[in-house]
Queue: 2 jobs
Job 1
Amino acid sequence: MVKETWSAANVRKSLIIRIKKTLNTEEGKEEGLNNVNQFIDSAVRELLEKLEEKRFSHQNTYDDKVRILDNKIGKMGDIVTIFLKEELKIGFCDYCESEKCVHVKYMWELEDVVKILKKRNFNSPYAEQIK
Ligand SMILES: [Zn+2]
């Protein structure tokens, strides 16, 4: 087993007091948390999991378009299409009606797609961020 190492961070005293009070309640005990460190560790982990949830996923690439699933639009997520405009050498998102949006940005982060786009001399509006 790999030993977990710990690092210190500052937490407001008022929050520590609230945590200690909560740990002594029925609800606190039910969570199975025994001390302030465990409480903070658990709360931070929960927030990280929420923030790290994957928003986009690449669906497919065609000659004239790239399709991306966006989990934050529509009721259950929706697929957006980025049209590859050969004459302008740019991608154009049909959902945002823009050549510069989170979807186009995500497209330019997909290694396999970028290879194809570069071969075809397409330009990223986020070029300064592409290695
Ligand atoms: Zn878009």
Job 2
Amino acid sequence: MKLSVVSGGYTRFFIPDTCEALKYFANLGYQAIDLSLDGPYEKATKETGFEYTKQIQKTAKECNLLLYQAHAPASTDPNNQDIIKAISRSIEVCGFLGIENLVVHTIPTETKEEAIPVNVAYFSQFIPLLEKTGVNFCIENLGNFNDIHHYFKTADALNELVDNFNHKNFKICWDTGHGNLTNLDQYENVTKIGSRLGCVHVHDNYYPIFVPGEQYAFDGHNFPLFGNINFDAFIQALIDIGYKGTFNLETDTPNRRGHRDFVYKGEVTLKLKPIPFEIREKSDELLFTIGKYMLQRYNLWEE
Ligand SMILES: [Zn+2]
């Protein structure tokens, strides 16, 4: 199984140019990339043609990196035309680059009854473009335990939505951290998803942490094995369903820390955030080592 990493945590903060970022990841030893097409930092989604997109293609080829999956832009408003256009553009970019799987977020709804019809209507508008390009939508599990507006947190709910389309271009992305925020059994959920699983987001967090008086759930996107997700359960599930995708790390440590602001002499003080690139580089070496170790322990590592 190829080891992959998301590009956005880096292109947003440290290496603005995606092609430079790809060289950086290849140099660390990664074999595949999850291309972030969800932010203003990605030139491929901003251009009208495919000039920069071609450079990404060339760099990936030179670095022997598989472009297997991508992040689409997302909105909580189904009528946001800018996001609809941006999602269409990201499908076209994926089609051009041969990226099989584009991860999308569901629209939150006031009631559970609206969840399926609202999301079926929303995603259906993209079907002609998915068919034309051959790109799959992978619908991701979102929301923590007390979030009543995100209905698609579990394998059962995701399966219900995807089965509604009954279409080869609709699959699921299982996010280990989001699953943990709902305190779900990773093995049970991933095996229920089964052949519908197109790709994964691997990261860690601590849940449940019960602070007296409040229940705390924070989507920290920590390095795997730095939280309390049972990754034996997760990897065994990937093996048992015959998953053929990449092992894709979607970490954001230590940028996403969720701390309260410190106001000193009238000003918010953030001297320690973001971390300097020298520290990030060291942490990237560690992240790669952890990912490789996890795959090696299950004889999944590919040289
Ligand atoms: Zn995710």
